[in-house]
Design brief:
By secondary structure, the protein is an alpha/beta fold. It has 2 domains: 154 residues, 3-Layer(aba) Sandwich (Rossmann fold), CATH 3.40.50.1000; 82 residues, Four Helix Bundle (Hemerythrin (Met), subunit A), CATH 1.20.120.1600. The protein has 10 helices and 7 strands. The protein has a 7-stranded parallel sheet with strand order 1-7-6-5-2-3-4, sandwiched between helices. Helix 9 links the parallel strand 5 and strand 6. The chain is elongated.
């Protein structure tokens, strides 16, 4: 496999159409940073719980809630792929344990999810997606629980898939295969963009799609994995790479 590192490349002019018709994109750390958003969403939810479930918050803080979710993922393998289901199950159990109403769990998750969607895309993303959406079908494939239709990028995506919808999380092939079926394209007509070497790049390649590794943090590629075909630092480089795929 030939690895292409994009730097200082100029778009090639062409009037023909690229064979690529579908672009699938990861969300967290690909189109927006998520660490601070998740932290803020959990803090907002915790303040809500302090008002509605005081016995729970008297015995748990944010760290112990995270630890309990990790335990739930280990104990409930059947829902481990669905982060929202894990959060809901964990809260219901803890609410019951603390003699607060377990029925508060769903409302508390709603509070969390609303804040979870208060994302700020990387500056390079919106202008490039706006242009790409005119030529390609764009789909988001995320293992997280952000709803792209509730974010500033909603106008650019034709459809979105999550573990809850697909019934599995990346690197399982389900989400990629469902995206291909929904778009009505063959694997060679699609490319996936993501930041995770295994869940995004290798997983997409294993279903026959092309894959682009976005490496915003200039991290080293795992030595035990075959090298990626293409590495980009931002969406401007993605746009230039897509221009290069147009056959003259």
């Amino acid at each position: 496999m030939v690895m292409t590192q994009l730097t200082n490349l100029s778009p090639r002019e062409s009037k023909t159409v690229s064979p690529l018709t579908l672009i699938t994109l990861d969300l967290d750390e690909t189109v927006w940073p998520s660490e601070s958003v998740l932290k803020k969403a959990e803090e907002i939810q915790f303040k809500w719980l302090q008002q509605r479930a005081p016995r729970l918050t008297a015995s748990h803080d944010l760290d112990s809630l995270r630890a309990h979710r990790r335990l739930i993922r280990e104990q409930y393998a059947e829902i481990a792929y669905d982060l929202t289901a894990v959060r809901t199950t964990s809260l219901r159990l803890l609410l019951k344990e603390s003699d607060d109403s377990p029925d508060l769990a769903e409302e508390a998750i709603g509070v969390f999810l609303e804040a979870r969607n208060w994302v700020t895309p990387y500056a390079d993303v919106p202008p490039v997606l706006e242009k790409l959406a005119r030529t390609y079908r764009l789909a988001s494939l995320t293992n997280g629980n952000a709803d792209v239709q509730c974010t500033p990028l909603k106008a650019h995506f034709h459809f979105s898939l999550t573990p809850c919808i697909a019934g599995a999380a990346k690197p399982a092939p389900d989400m990629f295969q469902q995206a291909l079926e929904q778009a009505g394209v063959e694997p060679h007509q699609a490319v996936h963009i993501g930041d995770h070497p295994e869940c995004d790049v290798i997983a997409a390649q294993q279903v026959g799609m092309r894959a682009v590794w976005i490496n915003r943090r200039e991290a080293p590629w795992p030595a035990d994995l075959p090298p990626p075909e293409v590495i980009i630092k931002d969406f401007h480089e993605l746009e230039r790479w897509l221009f290069q795929q147009i056959k003259i």
